[in-house]
């Protein structure tokens, strides 16, 4: 077995340390992510999810504990932080706020230019990144950024991070505030990045449908700690755990739980709409 | 060393530290008035002992309001360069004006006398005192209380058609949004850093390059600020806010003996400061 691409061990972080307002955001958090995995981090607001992912590309340095990403030790003060940030592409919440260039192409090219790449390669990367998020290079590269729709802006922002060619893509609530169509399309794109480009994906989400659809493994955070970890099947199949940590369930799972309460024998471990439908069909046939 | 981007922590303006001390519970109108009196006294007082006394009073204020002194010191730290520049300029160019006392050193236009040294030291002390005092004021008074107090104190100006309410509202909004924009800026810096931007790594004399480095933050920040302003307008209009309409007050302050004594104490301190002859 190869070593995990993201290895967080006993990470703790206290905000406003040494003041009466001190607040422990992370408390001995450990997560391991293998190359090519798609991981979801879920949990209540204030459970420490954002603080955790900011450690992954060195925006925050560990106060205690260890964070190693692709062999780079984030706690080492001499680590090449720019190299680290190229390996881990972090996409913030509402990333469309960060666009600043007049034209779409220029904005996506910002990262590669900052890396000091020759112009031909920058162009090639912009084209590659735009195709990945589903924006036509020829059609969109000279469009003004302010004239785009919300969904398109978010794709541009995502392309701006992808153009760095990261090994790990970290997304903070990638679909928050999008309309259902853009949401679906973006999820498709992320899934394809993971499956076809082999990108390791870590995403934070409040939307359980999304988690059910994308994630291979789920980390549940509560009060700055990892409350539990497992496959979506295991997590969504455990109703007492979900209730304890105030986590919602995908609608499909909700229906199955309700059926079971009514006395029907259904497998509540199914969490995808298709699986739930199959369970219900089984019931009807019987 | 995780503080690279923690901007909101460094902004002390508008930061309120609830320790529920006597100072915290004072009527904001009286607190503000006492504060203004003390600041005036500090501005006038130009003696060594008077300023040392004022400094002691300021430090005592931290103790009375149960606020750790390092809050005040962290306010002084960023001002140190200014204090040093000011002191140097005064030392070099004020000798001619503040002539008097014994002359220690004279060369060309540079005159250093006991009077100009006094000016330098007293200005530095004043600086620290003013920072300490305003830190205590903002740390012990929430911004709403502060603007309420200000609005009431300025109330009489309404007679000469001064838009007191609008003025108070502007200040409230400005102070209210300082932490918001600090957070917004922090987020923006992190987002751009994630895309390969770096800030403050260029040599300091390459001002143009360093300014250009800031563009990816400044432009989106303006966008966000304008969007927020529009939201705020809508929210206010949705609640029927009318500029210039007559308004009733939600909070009423009633001065007690404590508040009067705070005012009297501040006047006494000021009188002592101004009457110390050395």
TrEMBL record, chain A:
* Xref: SUPFAM superfamilies: P-loop containing nucleoside triphosphate hydrolases
User: What does the record give as EC number?
Assistant: 7.-.-.-
Membrane spanning residue stretches: none
Q: Which domain of life is it from?
A: Bacteria
Question: Could you tell me which residue ranges the ABC transporter domain spans?
Answer: 6-248
A molecular function (GO) term: ATP hydrolysis activity
Give the record's subunit note.
Answer: Forms a stable energy-coupling factor (ECF) transporter complex composed of 2 membrane-embedded substrate-binding proteins (S component), 2 ATP-binding proteins (A component) and 2 transmembrane proteins (T component).
**Protein name in UniProt:** Energy-coupling factor transporter ATP-binding protein EcfA2
Automatic annotation (TrEMBL), chain B:
Q: How does it sit in the membrane?
A: Multi-pass membrane protein
Q: Where in the cell is it found?
A: Membrane
Alphabetical UniProt keywords: Cell membrane, Membrane, Transmembrane, Transmembrane helix
One GO term describing the cellular component? plasma membrane
Q: Which domain of life is it from?
A: Bacteria
Report the CDD domains cross-referenced here.
EcfT (cd16914)
Q: What is this protein called?
A: Energy-coupling factor transporter transmembrane protein EcfT
